[in-house]
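Quick one:
INPUT:
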């Protein structure tokens, strides 16, 4: 489907390259070879992501009038039998098992972001044998990459995607900060890096799934606020509590329960559709049995 997908994804990915160039000029420490290597990686990733997202865009185009809750029925929830560390799968069990509409599409984007993240070199100082030495490390921006891809889907669907990447909400009033059209999240960053910086006092879940796509993403129209965690990014209870409070309605029956049931946790790749069960980490009790 050549349509809006190709230019949307091209602009998003090319934006990452421009962002790197801006950063390069600011630090004045990157080499032409590093720039050339990044350009090659982005060009290759652009070809792959176009094909990967093609069927997702086509499906959502056909389903534009369908409520998101319709797709939650077939979702089995995340894998609470898998834990990355400690008692994570027990402490956050209900968030992990929450039904999330469009989990296949979300999994597709997150898996691509995990496998092909945008990478940028970063100059750091290290002490070696008492001397301070400058060296360069490579930073993989997995969450940023995923958000860019979700935004590309939204733009391709003329901002009527059910998946909103990092939409901003006023932490006090809980009102959504709407763009133009009103189904488009308002941004405060640059065209290159739209998600950051974020003004103080705003909350932005990694991903919001709206119930009605023709209406703004106000909290009452949110079916699920999804916190996405890539490997190495640990779950924090305080963060989930903030999103529960954000999604809690002011009135109605049992508002606290309603707010909590709107928050979900998706760990990549553990809670993605297609995660290989053979790669699941054993539980502490299973590990104890193996030692006997």
């Amino acid at each position: 489907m050549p349509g809006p997908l190709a230019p949307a994804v091209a602009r998003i990915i090319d934006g990452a390259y421009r962002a790197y160039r801006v950063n390069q000029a600011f630090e004045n420490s990157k080499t032409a070879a590093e720039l050339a290597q990044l350009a090659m990686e982005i060009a290759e990733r652009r070809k792959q992501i176009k094909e990967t997202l093609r069927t997702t865009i086509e499906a959502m185009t056909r389903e534009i009038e369908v409520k998101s809750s319709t797709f939650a029925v077939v979702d089995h929830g995340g894998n609470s039998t898998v834990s990355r560390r400690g008692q994570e799968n027990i402490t956050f069990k209900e968030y992990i098992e929450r039904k999330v509409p469009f989990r296949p599409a979300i999994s597709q984007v997150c898996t691509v972001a995990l496998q092909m993240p945008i990478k940028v070199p970063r100059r750091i100082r290290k002490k070696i044998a008492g001397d301070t030495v400058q060296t360069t490390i490579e930073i993989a921006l997995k969450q940023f990459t995923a958000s860019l891809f979700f935004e590309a889907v939204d733009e391709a669907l003329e901002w009527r995607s059910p998946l909103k990447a990092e939409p901003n909400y006023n932490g006090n009033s809980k009102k959504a900060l709407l763009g133009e059209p009103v189904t488009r999240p308002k941004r405060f960053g640059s065209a290159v890096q739209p998600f950051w910086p974020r003004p103080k006092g705003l909350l932005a879940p990694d991903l919001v799934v709206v119930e009605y796509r023709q209406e703004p993403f106000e909290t009452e129209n949110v079916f699920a606020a999804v916190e996405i965690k890539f490997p190495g990014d640990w779950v924090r209870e305080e963060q989930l509590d903030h999103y529960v409070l954000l999604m809690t309605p002011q009135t109605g029956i049992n508002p606290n329960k309603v707010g909590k049931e709107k928050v979900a946790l998706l760990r990549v790749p553990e809670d993605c559709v297609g995660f290989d069960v053979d790669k699941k980490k054993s539980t502490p009790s299973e590990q104890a049995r193996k030692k006997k």
